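re: ur question from earlier - yeah i can do the single chain one, its not a big deal. heres the input i used so u can compare w yours
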Amino acid sequence: MKMRINTYIAWALLLIVSVSCSDDFLEEKGVYGKYDDSFYESEERVDWYINNVYYDFFGSYTNPLSTVVGAYSQTNSRLTEEIGGMQDLINSTITLTTANEGSGYYGTKLEAKVKNEPYHRIRDINAFLEEVDVKGASLDEDYRATAKGQMYYLRAIQYFELMRVYGGVPIVTSVQAASSTDESIKLPRASVSQMVDQIIEDLDMAASLLPGNWPPSDYGRFTRGAALAQKARVLLTYASPLFNTSWDSNNERWQAALQAGLAAEVQLTEDGYGLYGNSAKDWQDMFLIDNSFCSEAITVQLLGSGNSSNIMNNTWENSVRLASQLGSGGLAAPKEMIDLFPMADGSKPTTANGYDEFLFFVNRDPRFYRTFSFSGNKWGYKDNEDNAVWAYRWLGLDDNGVQRAYFSDNNQVSSPAFVRKMSDIEESEDNFQNSGTDIFEYRYAELLLNIAEAYAGVGDLPNCVAYLGKVRNRVGIPSTNNYGIGTLADKFEAFKACLYERQVELAYEGKRFWDVQRWMLYNDDASVNNTTCATLGLDRINGTKRTGNYLQFKGGVVTSEDPLASVRQGVVVDPDASDFDTQIQTLAGIYTDNFMLADLETPLDNINNVEAKIDWKQNYYIMGLKSDVLSLNPWLEQTIGWKDTSDNFGTFNYQE
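and the output i got, formated as tokens:
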């Protein structure tokens, strides 16, 4: 698989060194304004510069769970219902308030050298925007326009990420020389409104300069529609309770988010984008479209297959594959995620609607079978297309008569279900660690869900339901009772329905944390304008846990030999099979006769091996600046809820 922007950048930079008549490219790039004016006389060299900025932003984006531009770690995703395991920010024994404990994302001292940090990335962009029309005046005008459009887009998403982490930060739109005496560069933290104004200005500029589509050789670069969709995402965040104290009474911000979303929808439709396919199988397969246009992918991270230092691989495939498939062992789905997905008719999974927590795989939303796998389920790969996976344990006596636990096919998974979404059935077992599956960073379905939420915000319930219905209709949920959504009584029920649909449709795509954050769903605290859980009728995440279980043979203590080896022979459930419903019922009988759910020896969420519950603190929604940033920039206010270098609580308020 060919990676057109990211995977060969390291190689491209080596080429620059060999063909350039000036000094090393990276050194030139680090000393702003000092490199040869001829640099901008070649589209080839300008492309390399742009590609390197892309790489700085997305070079670490190799897993769909990863979040935060430039840094890209899985930490945020592991703070939600999607994955078990205690983290510092949800640990009840840890309280972070000091400047030493703030987020380090802001970066370190600004210097005239290459450093892949937010303000250094911004400076790369500012330098380009200042110089390309001057030193590159001989370049084709249309070429310069698309080059600038990409840079405006990148600057916008960098400031948006800083906004999501810190609320407001200094806004810098020109190249500044680091100085301890120049008062003009001592910029204060911008308000969130000022941040949004700048981000939207950049995205509007990007939309005016970028094409609707790129030629195949440049697929993966940002487009006009992507800029408009990103604008809708930004304005939806701005309208949400984290930044909007009047979210439930004033429609102004919701209306702006709605207008932006509809404008993006119109543009993207014109450019050939839309929901991919019309079945759950299409929904599954779209994630595997390889380095070529997919109508669903508004923005996409292109990755490469192969074992080479010049190729960026996707780490997801190996992480979700089971030990029996020669993967790293699988990603256990907490019970809370298993119990989340709707029934086949779109209704909530309740006892009244026929849901059985033990036979969790019976009669579920079509997306359930494409998001999770489970014992008896077909989950193939290139070397074994019809592979039926089994992951259960039994208690048996070893050769010395000592009781111990054994696991089917060496699959020791801490849940009866495990994540399979975005895995490639065409990938070979000896290449899982070198997978080239692309990552859809912004899908068309998310845009529709953004629009649905904005409709909820302005109180237009019929259109909110209509847009939710578009997402459900694509995967085959019947239209009865509004695709199972039912009748929404008010805007708060509509918001709740939107958040629920996002949990299902966008599961394991790195989006859940941002929804939890912008809606402040961990807790309620009326003293700081946070009552969203109570207002929406949602259970707070604080006080809950991610639960794991073993699927265990219930026939008592046996031997080391698999007691179900003959029972499971020939048993497989395949959602693409014409007799899938019959297969499900057969598997349900096997589960009922042979299995039970057993507690884990060590809970998924534990502190020192003792079960623990989630405990997020209110001040974590927006992080504090680190002490080194405050020391270097003493005019900057610390965030409320966080202490400054003098041990006083901060005064910067991100809520407006």
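The mean pLDDT is 93. not sure if urs matches, ping me
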